[in-house]
Amino acid sequence: MTCWQQRALFALCSIGLCSSASANLTFSGTLNEPPPCTIDAGNTIEVDFGDVGVKRVDGVKYRRGVGYTISCAPATLPWVLRLSVNGTPTGFDAAALQTSVPALGIRLLQNDQPFLLNTPLDITLSSPPALEVVPVKQPGATLPPARFTAVATLLAEYE
């Protein structure tokens, strides 16, 4: 606004034709990045079920714990830490990871509850949930004798 425009506005306001007020606004802040985290120092976590009987897969037998540790750099803000297991679910169980055998899955459990794949769970760094896995089969399926594998990504990240 030029000087003569300000004077004209002042003159109008002083004779009662204008009643307004203005103030400048400023905005500022700091963008922060969440601290980095690692799981088991970036090493692969392997769970070996050993020999599994094709007629003994029932979602209970062969249950194994998944040992892992999460390490995160110190946080300057109260970030929410989330844990997820990302992979391809079976067509018969959203908490079971598809294996190389079509009718066989590996169900994930967190604190004895099904842990849905690709679904983040809010956790506390000081007490992450206990994870377990167990082989499950598609209802009504007959499993063939075969080697099986499955791959997933365990991800811990701040939101």
TrEMBL record:
Superkingdom to which the source organism belongs: Bacteria
UniProt entry keywords in alphabetical sequence: Signal
Gene Ontology BP term (one): cell adhesion
Domain Fimbrial-type adhesion: 26-158
Signal peptide (UniProt feature, chain positions): 1-23
This protein's record includes keyword Signal: yes
Keyword Transferase found: no
A GO CC term attached to the entry: pilus
Protein name: Fimbrial protein
Species assigned in the record: Pseudomonas gessardii
